[in-house]
Amino acid sequence: MISVTIDSPTAAIGPQWDDLVRRAPSNVFMNPAALLAASETNFANIRMLLAWEKGAGAPRLAGLWALQMRRPAPFWPIVIEPLPYNYAFLSNPVIDPAYVDEVVPAFLRAIEQSPSLSRIVSLHSFDTECPSYPAIIRDLAVRGVKPLVLSETMRPFVTKDFGLKRSGSTRKKLRQDWNRLSAAGAVEVVNDRSIGGAKRAFEIFLALEQASWKGANGTALLSDPRDCAFARRLLQSLAEQGNASVALLLVNGEPIAAQVVMYCGKTAYTWKTAFSANYAKYSPGTLLVDKITEELLSSPDIQAINSCAAEASFMGQLWAGRRKMVDMLFDLGPRRSLGYRLEAGRQLGYGQLRSWRDRLRQGYPAPRAKRPEPAL
Predict the structure, then answer these.
(1) Mean pLDDT, to the nearest integer, of 65-82?
(2) Exposure class string for 342-373: b at 16+ Cβ within 10 A, else e
(3) 115 and 61 in one domain?
(4) Is the full-model pTM beyond 0.90?
(5) Residue 335: which of 144, 69, 142 has the closest Cα?
């Protein structure tokens, strides 16, 4: 028997979470410590859906899905986003595989029936290869709900068994860049997973990012005090569990690249990268990720690495493995509400503008806009 509770983020769920991720496909962004960091810094308004399997003994956590309650614009209807906070890159719930077909309908039913939750659900960066995706599609079909698919993309992803490029032009260039960098000085890769080491290395990452084009554009974490306060709290909270570190590439002791890595279950997540422009000709960020990939996959504790990045990123050149990601929108109410139609129009328009921007940057003329689907 599965029952669902709706709660605010709390550290009390930690032991049950640890037990769940030993059984379920992981999502580090759903870690209760991360959710609490976002909540206590007022970075996001989050509710946790907790699915409990009730048998003869004490209830056991069978699933967790964190939802961000967000109003996209003033006077706009509230929308549920299972990317629980900005800088999260995976929205799948964490569910014990033995209970997926029971937990997913229970989650959607809890959203539908709760007076405190919106019925408009906006899924972004949802991994279609996780068991939760077909379970959601099946339950929506039973309800007669057709989701609006906004985009489908591929994400670089690598496992011990598949996806690592071991030869070819990319591998040749990496060897050449490493040799050239080694000629410039003593090269070292350090990934200190202690709490103190992770915190010190994260400050190095922040400084490298701020000194890069992101700082010039105002998009580095240090450019926004609120974002930076949350990111520091997030990193510290996960590092205290041994679930975050910052790998550094050093030349003669000088950090020239930093890669923030998060861990959940048997999966590592390459969250954010920064590097020194003074060493850009050596591709230091790519070199660091390549070395860290080897280190992580050689560990018995890690079976896969999620890039948290787009296919066109440099990680797409390093790894041949891919996971299909989808963005979609649906309404769990008895009919498509006005709020849903407004949000669908907003997201379709935003997607079209981004497409035009990307084509113009590449020197292509903007395509003619497609008319929205009649179902809206």
Answers:
(1) 92
(2) bbbeebbeeeeeeeeeeeeeeeeeeeeeeeee
(3) yes
(4) yes
(5) 144
